[in-house]
Design brief:
This protein is α+β, with helices and mostly antiparallel strands. It has 5 helices and 10 strands; from the N terminus they run βαββββαβααβββαβ. The protein has a single domain, classed as Roll (Pnp Oxidase, Chain A), CATH 2.30.110.
């Protein structure tokens, strides 16, 4: 496992491709128990003078419980590799199966200010994020109401997390 920390400002990752096409894993938990899920929605940018990520997790997802209970989450990017494993992590719930065991992902635990942040040895890039803000995506905020029909007809809304990127880790 050869990783090195890098400055966020030096990342040359195309996050449109990395998230939308290659997907990422959102992971939260502690050394006793973690959960991860695949995401193809999200983003990165600058907000409140901080380098941040935006992660979206449906209210029905088991990972939400872990995000709510922990100060940090990670976004692991695999550069288009492991699509089968990421598809599995998106299809199955950690309530029912051990996704990490079933996919062969190897967790790496990192202590950040006394809290746990877990990512995966197979990742090409990891963003360790400290939660700053959480908001339910409310239906009353939509200007284009066709999105409600397309994405939220079953009422399973997303929680949006804004997290400060406290560490960026790249495979060497």
């Amino acid at each position: 496992m050869n990783f090195t920390s890098t400055e966020v400002s030096k990342l040359d990752t195309n996050f449109f491709n990395a998230i939308g096409n290659d997907w990422m894993l959102i992971t939260a938990g502690n050394t006793d128990k973690i959960n991860t899920m695949t995401a193809s929605w999200g983003g990165s940018g600058v907000l409140w003078g901080k380098n941040v990520t935006f992660a979206f997790v449906r209210q029905s997802r088991y990972t939400l419980e872990f995000l709510d209970k922990n100060d940090y989450y990670t976004l692991s990017f695999f550069g288009g590799n492991l699509k089968k494993e990421l598809a599995y992590c998106g299809k199955y719930s950690g309530r029912d199966v051990d996704k990490i065991k079933e996919t062969g992902l190897i967790p790496v635990n990192e202590n950040i200010d006394g809290s746990n942040a877990t990512y995966f040895e197979q990742a090409e890039l990891v963003l360790v994020c400290k939660k700053l803000y959480k908001q339910t995506i409310g239906l009353d905020g939509f200007i284009d109401e066709s999105i409600i029909d397309a994405q939220y007809s079953n009422g399973d809304l997303h929680e949006m997390f804004v997290g400060e990127i406290v560490k960026a880790i790249k495979r060497v």
